[in-house]
Automatic annotation (TrEMBL):
It comes from Polynucleobacter hirudinilacicola. Keywords: Aminotransferase, Pyridoxal phosphate, Transferase. This is Aspartate aminotransferase family protein. The keyword Cytoplasm does not apply. Its cofactor is pyridoxal 5'-phosphate. GO terms for molecular function: pyridoxal phosphate binding; transaminase activity. Belongs to the class-III pyridoxal-phosphate-dependent aminotransferase family. InterPro entries: Aminotrans_3 (IPR005814), Aminotrans_3_PPA_site (IPR049704), PyrdxlP-dep_Trfase (IPR015424), PyrdxlP-dep_Trfase_major (IPR015421), PyrdxlP-dep_Trfase_small (IPR015422).
Length: 446
């Protein structure tokens, strides 16, 4: 392997969600990004197989986004987020609401997906309280869910590693539905598995155990992204929706990954034909160029909270961030949505879905691969773990992919991919073939 162009002092930086000691022995340093490619400090050109961290559907350095940011900086670099807002922030909220499923017509801005999740949980509790149901405070998440790293998010989340250090601090009163991945029933399914809708009935059991009147909300990623593209069985989300409606429980879709086109529709809610009461979003809204997140909320939830504010001057919802609706990410988001419209971006993602599906499933039969999943422009493969060395083989696959010119995402023994929507079909095919060769190479490492 070539050496890096210049040594980097890595001693002070604590890398998030990274095995830091392993990293220092196997550093990965990126130097630039353009279109669907990163360039690293070894001079390698790497196809961006995960669109950054699922956040760069338009690839990198689109000049239209940069120009919008510069212009906004010249015009107004910041606007206080409380008691006022920039004109463009109002219009961005309207624009996002127009893209969302009918009825979700209010937007609360945050800076990240984690904040969006914690905001949504607070809105759910606030709503029930103003509706006279103050006992509805319990939350229901799902095993293997990722909802960010706020205390609310890790509480409803289902990734053991993210929770176990903080157990006693997590919000009380949270239950978890089972995840829906069952390899004996659905390994190598293309798209949605047929088996498994009945797993939604577990929700009825939790409701029966606690009484519906204690439960505020169910939160789910329509497709579980960070833990390896776990696709909901056919009919599963519909059943969850029915049970929530029956018991007056709010349904929150965490669409931080699935929102803004990843599933070949504006939101996963559209693709699955299931409308939740709130949608959290982040990532793609600014193409990952600058942080922004938010919550789409059913209009009457907003009306109920606002309407119960009490005195004329009272603040109805004591929550917000200094950078909620910040003008610069707002400008970036407008530019991104302009590009979505002018370049028919969501349909491009949709057109690439079969290319990714075929490319990934062509790897079936390779030694070491336990499962292959795909939905929208996202997919994952599960590797046979090396006993006692969780995730090591997947890290080897990542390294072998980099040597061959592509970046993928590793989570435990799972490798996830989600290429930019601007990818050419042959680039998606290249990604899949690199992944296959990298698995072969990693299987040889003992
Ligand atoms: N929810 C989901 C579904 C996510 O995938 C993520 C990030 N991967 C988050 C929340 C957290 O977003 P952030 O890292 O922006 O806080």
């Amino acid at each position: 392997m070539s050496s890096p162009s210049k040594p980097v002092d890595m001693s002070a930086y604590w890398l998030p969600f990274t095995p830091n000691r392993y990293f220092h022995q196997n550093p990965k340093v990126m130097q630039s990004a353009k279109g669907a490619y990163y360039y690293d400090d070894h001079g390698r050109k790497l196809f961006d197989g995960l669109s950054g961290l699922w956040c760069s559907p338009l690839g990198h350095a689109d000049p239209r986004i940069g120009a919008a940011i510069s212009k906004q900086y010249e015009t107004m670099d910041y606007c206080p987020a409380f008691q006022m807002a920039s004109e463009a922030t109002f219009s961005l909220a309207s624009r996002i609401a127009k893209m969302a499923p009918k009825g979700l017509d209010k937007v609360f801005f945050t800076n990240s997906g984690s904040e969006a999740v914690d905001t949504a949980l607070k809105i759910a509790i606030g709503y029930h309280r103003v509706m006279g149901n103050a006992s509805r405070v319990r939350m229901i998440g799902r095993e293997r869910a990722y909802h960010g790293v706020g205390m609310g998010g890790i509480s409803v989340g289902g990734m053991v590693a993210n929770r176990k250090m903080f157990t006693s601090l997590m919000i009380p009163g949270v239950d978890h539905l089972p995840h829906t991945l069952n390899l004996s029933q659905m390994a190598f399914s293309k798209g949605q598995p047929i088996w498994g809708a009945h797993l939604a009935d577990e929700l009825e059991k939790i409701v029966a155990l606690h009484d519906a009147n204690t439960i505020a909300a169910v939160i789910l990623e329509p497709v579980q992204g960070s833990t390896g593209v776990i696709v909901p069985p056919e009919g599963y989300l519909q059943k969850i929706r029915e049970i929530c409606t029956k018991h007056g429980i709010l349904l929150i879709f965490d669409e931080v990954i699935t929102g803004f086109g990843r599933l070949g529709a504006n939101f996963g809610a559209d693709r699955f034909g299931v409308t939740p009461d709130m949608i959290t979003f982040a990532k793609g809204i600014t193409n990952g160029v600058i942080p922004m997140g938010g919550v789409l909320v059913r209009g009457d939830i907003y009306d109920s909270i606002i309407g119960n504010g009490g005195q004329e001057q009272a603040i109805e919802f004591f929550h917000g961030y200094t950078y909620s609706g910040h003008p610069i990410p707002t400008a970036a988001a407008h530019a991104v949505l302009d590009i979505f419209e002018s370049d028919d971006v969501v349909n491009r993602a949709k057109a690439l879905e079969p290319v990714l599906e075929n490319g990934l499933h062509a790897l079936k039969g390779k030694s070491g691969i336990l499962d292959i999943r795909n939905f929208g422009l996202s997919g994952a493969i599960d590797l046979e773990p090396v006993p006692g060395k969780l995730g090591l083989r997947a890290l080897k696959v990542l390294e072998a992919c980099i040597e061959r010119g592509a970046l993928v995402r590793v989570a435990g023994d799972c490798i996830a991919v989600g290429p930019p929507f601007i990818s050419k079909p042959e680039e998606v095919e290249f990604l899949c073939s690199v992944l296959g060769d990298a698995v072969d190479a990693a299987m040889k490492v003992k």
